[in-house]
Amino acid sequence: xxxxxxxxxxxxxxxxxxxxxxxxxxxxxxxxxxxxxxxxxxxxxxxxxxxxxxxxxxxxxxxxxxxxxxxxxxxxxxxxxxxxxxxxxxxxxxxxxxxxxxxxxxxxxxxxxxxxxxxxxxxxxxxxxxxxxxxxxxxxxxxxxxxxxxxxxxxxxxxxxxxxxxxxxxxxxxxxxxxxxxxxxxxxxxxxxxxxxxxxxxxxxxxxxxxxxxxxxxxxxxxxxxxxxxxxxxxxxxxxxxxxxxxxxxxxxxxxxxxxxxxxxxxxxxxxxxxxxxxxxxxxxx
Length: 286
Fold this sequence. Notes:
Elements: H1 6-21, E1 46-50, E2 53-54, E3 58-61, E4 64-66, H2 68-80, E5 87-91, H3 97-102, E6 108-109, H4 117-120, E7 124-132, E8 134-139, E9 155-159, H5 164-171, E10 177-181, H6 184-192, E11 198-202, H7 203-210, E12 219-221, E13 229-235, H8 242-254, H9 257-266
Parallel strand pairs: 1-5, 1-6, 9-10, 9-11
Antiparallel strand pairs: 2-3, 3-4, 7-13, 8-11, 8-12
């Protein structure tokens, strides 16, 4: 873990909070340059893909966008020369992230986007800016499921385009029955109705879902992560922003803003990031 400058973190946090209060409405329009130029004037925009349905990470409520991913995105965008009102937020569902980047509909994606070799065949990554671990969400009174190997013959939900459920089927429980839903909220609904026995994705996502008022006391995170998910900033392969994004992530970690943001995003959930993996050091740009 790095030694952080707390004064710098508080200043950056105050700036982030001020930006959040003035968060602009999202746009589903494509566009956005990938030439790496900063926007100094003239209404130039940067289009950033995030999740709209992940409380604590990327969440849209009215015209306000909150969560750890959005806080990191705002910080990086500012370091690239873009103010809050120059950000156009675009929903980036798991199944559409590569398409959004490869067709230049977005400039960057901050959407719990794990860095993998397969994805690198289509897109590029900066970061990582966080390391999560795959876990399970079950009913509060469930005592049978303590890990992925306990899912044999049971019903498991994950989101279309995510690799989480398939990993369990391939590596832990070949007989698990998979149900895909368009979003994690739908998976939790399926869990609460008894349609599935568990929901799987990264631990920090599950913590955010469990903390929602409608779910409190009804579901719980098993708390036995069994993978390493390195969240990167997705960028088009033609982008030249990787080095600048990595520099911004490093600065966010060093000035304390990263720690403030993750603490704020997970407050009240009991979730603690894996200290052996976080905060991460960004990879060298290819």
